[in-house]
Amino acid sequence: MAGNELIPALDPMPVPGPLWLYHVLWVVTFLIHILLVNAVLGGSFIAAWAGAAKADRRRIVELLLQVNTWAIPLSITFGIAPLLFVQVVLGRFFYTAALLVPWWWLGLLGLLMVGYYLNYLAKWRLARGEGVRHWLVLQAVCFLLVTLIQVVVNLLHMQPQRWEAAAAGLAGALADPTLIPRFLHFLLAALAMVGAMVAWVAVRRAGTGVAAAERSELDGMARFGVKFALYATLLQLIDGFWLLFALPEEVLKGFMRSGPAAMIPLTLGILAGVLLLVFLAQVHDPLAQSGKARRALELVMAATAVMVITRHQVREVYLAPARAAEELVTTAPWGLIALFLVIFVAGVATTVYAMVRAATDRPAPGEQAA
Questions:
Q1: For residues 97 and 160, what is the distance between their CA atoms, to the nearest angstrom?
Q2: Which of 65, 264, 307, 368 is spaced 20 to 30 A from 273 at the CA atom?
Q3: Residue 40 sits in the same domain as residue 159
Q4: Using 50, 70 and 90 to split pLDDT, how confident is the model at 52?
Q5: pLDDT digit string (tens) for 283-315?
Q6: Shared domain check, 289 and 226
């Protein structure tokens, strides 16, 4: 296969555990990471779109800036684990692809830092009653570029036959028919999730008993979230089929021949998207239909979970020719693996607990309460 001579040799060190375990951990940790990334990407985009001119829009911006305060660092932290599992299983492919676009890959860190600090700048200006629209747009651009870089690197690492063209110039790195639909697939999923989240938060707040003026603002916030999730889901279904049929012919055929293990997650993902569209289309009064807002958020997350599995399986089909002669040696230090799993579960549980407390605690103001 053309381009195989550019693939680095296998690491002579044995893989510290069974490969299936690392694939499972990779998918699980990437799912946690991508849910947090969706909150950041979708939140920054919707905040920029909403602005803060109206009262209900200001509530949306305040919510999303607050979410990004913890979602940005957590998405980076939980991105470390899947990167480690990539290194174990496909390090010679992934990091070679990153080296083909070095300034993009290094620039990703700068964009993350700028986007993070812009979030605090926007919060500070909003609290002072100053304009934030331009800063929100700039923050959204930062995270859109981060997403684009990740998509480019991920497409390159699956296709060693494109490495020579990518090394010759940026045009070679971008010359992939699935680049645009794959980028839109990430963006639209994030917008659908955050739109559903905005609606769900508004419904929950309205259910706690609020004044008529505040309830009106929350109703506008919920309707905005439902509308955004509805349109994003509709476009996502269209884009999903575009992405599927934009795959190289040999990859699409190989995926379709993978049997129930591949077709069941794909079918469940499509069904979840269709059901989500039906639920959202039926929401005419979000505050009165609180159950539908919660189900919409659940369906978005369920669709994301099965699509993460499908994404992993498509990668395996892409790389099958390049890895045909690969013979990995494995060992099994079960004690260390068990220790890692305990620490990992404890870390996730602690993070969830902290997020729940941060969302539900309402401390009284003043020095004595502090």
A1: 8
A2: 65
A3: yes
A4: low
A5: 888 888 878 888 888 889 999 999 999 999 999
A6: yes
Identify any residues that bridge with 331 across adjacent strands, giving them in sequence order.
16
- What sign for the dihedral angle of Cα 141, 142, 143, 147? positive
Asked if the structure places residue 25 within a domain, the reply is: yes
Q: Are residues 144 and 216 in the same domain?
A: no
| Same domain as 304, residue 171 | no
Question: What's the rounded Cα separation, in Å, for the pair 277 and 102?
Answer: 40
**Chain segment 333-362, per-residue pLDDT in tens:** 888 888 988 998 898 888 888 877 776 766
Whether the per-residue pLDDT at 256 is higher than 50: the answer is yes
pLDDT at position 259 is 86
**Residues 69 and 123 sit within 8 Å (Cβ to Cβ):** yes
Check pLDDT > 50 for residue 219.
yes
Please give the DSSP secondary-structure letter assigned to residue 54. S
| CA distance linking residue 191 with residue 205, whole number of Å | 21
Q: What range does the domain containing 265 cover?
A: 177-321
| pLDDT at residue 1, as a whole number | 46
pTM: 0.90
The mean pLDDT value for 133-137 works out to 92
Interacting residues of 370 by C-beta distance below 8 A, sequence separation 6+: 363
Tokens describing residue 363 = 């401390």
Give the single-character DSSP code of 327: -
Q: Is residue 46 part of a domain?
A: yes
Give one DSSP letter per residue of 229-297, joined into a string: HHHHHHHHHHHHHHHHHHS-HHHHHHHHTT-HHHHHHHHHHHHHHHHHHHHHHT-S-TTT-HHHHHHHH
Lowest mean pLDDT among 103-107, 206-210, 220-224, 316-320: 206-210
- Is residue 42 within 8 Å of 126, Cβ to Cβ? no
Among 112, 146, 176, the domain-final residue is 176
Question: Residue for token digits 């069904």?
Answer: 271
Whole-number Å distance between alpha carbons of 327 and 304: 32
In 22-167, at which residue ranges do the beta strands (DSSP E only) sit? none
